[in-house]
Amino acid sequence: MANVDRLAEIFANAPYEIKSVYRLVIQPKSILREFRTLKYGFLFIIRGANRISVNGTVYDLHPGSVFHAAPGMQMEAQVAGESELEYYSVFYSLDQRYAEDSHHGCNAHFKLEPGVIPRVIELLLMLHQSVHTQGGMEKLRVKELFLSIMHQVLMGHKNQATIGSSDIAAIEKAIAYIKRNYMNPLTLEELAGIHAMNPKRFSYFFHKHMGLRPIDFVIQYRMERASELLRGGSFPIRDIAVSVGYANPLYFSRAFKKKFGISPSLYAKQFNSHI
């Protein structure tokens, strides 16, 4: 099991450089035959499921899972289930002094389970967009983003250990309920009551598991669905607002701009102009 505090110390202090970031979508049941790894890297699972074998150890990965491997490891992987696998891969180089130390934490394979943290997905997108920029300030921004991701992941993994299995089950059911009913009015009291929890307790454990308060997660999910519809380019903004739970298009536009930094109409225009 990964030592979270030790990993935090390593990535706070060790000399390393983020080299590349990729976002990949793999078809169901795809198989990656055994190969030897060449780089240090993390996989951040966004959706779908994956089974990876590394030096004989099997890891089952699902949304929220974070996996690490080092150079020189024997690996094979298979997409599990009937859904596509979407993930980000983040590759980095390590100072030669540490790369030659077999006991260094970066020279190990391990899995972290911070849960699905929407902020991590946002940061990964920004890292993906920033990693190939040049200049000192840009490189500093890349490192800032990576450290923010690692802080969120390590804190999430640590928090999971303090949440009981029944609380986790209730939260995961609440997430599924939100995804089915995001277009309807939802309140904290309703979400907590459905799962027989006190609203304050429910909000506390939801935040520990997801990194967001329940209603903030509802807003986050609505904005993600709205952005998908806007990228489709064929729906009026008023209709999109209603379809994601906002009867008032103006209020929807304000919430969308707060999330993405631009208005829904400009977002749709920018995205579709590149198609």
Describe what you observe in this structure.
- The strands form 2 sheets. The protein has a 5-stranded antiparallel beta sheet. The chain has a 4-stranded antiparallel beta sheet with strand order 2-7-4-5, with no helix packed on it.
- 49% of the residues lie in helices and 22% in strands.
- It has 2 domains: 4-160, Jelly Rolls; 165-272, Arc Repressor Mutant, subunit A, CATH 1.10.10.
- By secondary structure, it is α+β, with helices and mostly antiparallel strands.
- α3 packs antiparallel against α4 and α8 (214-232) packs across α11 (264-272).
- The longest helix has 25 residues, at 136-160.
Characteristics of this structure?
single chain; alpha+beta; Jelly Rolls; 2 domains; 5-stranded antiparallel beta sheet
Q: What percent of the residues sit in helical stretches (DSSP H or I)?
A: 40-55%
**Second CATH tier, the architecture of the largest domain:** Sandwich
The tally of domains stands at 2
CATH class of the largest domain: Mainly Beta
Largest sheet: 5 strands, antiparallel
- Please state the structural category: alpha+beta
How many angstroms separate the termini? 44 Å
How would you state the average pLDDT, rounded?
A: 89
| Rg for CA atoms | 20 Å
Keywords: DNA-binding, Transcription, Transcription regulation
Protein name: AraC family transcriptional regulator
Domain HTH araC/xylS-type: 172-270
Pfam families: AraC_binding, HTH_18
Quick summary:
InterPro entries: AraC-bd, Homeodomain-like_sf, HTH-like, HTH_AraC, HTH_AraC-typ_CS, RmlC-like_jellyroll, Tscrpt_reg_AraC-type_HTH. With 275 residues, the chain is an alpha+beta fold.
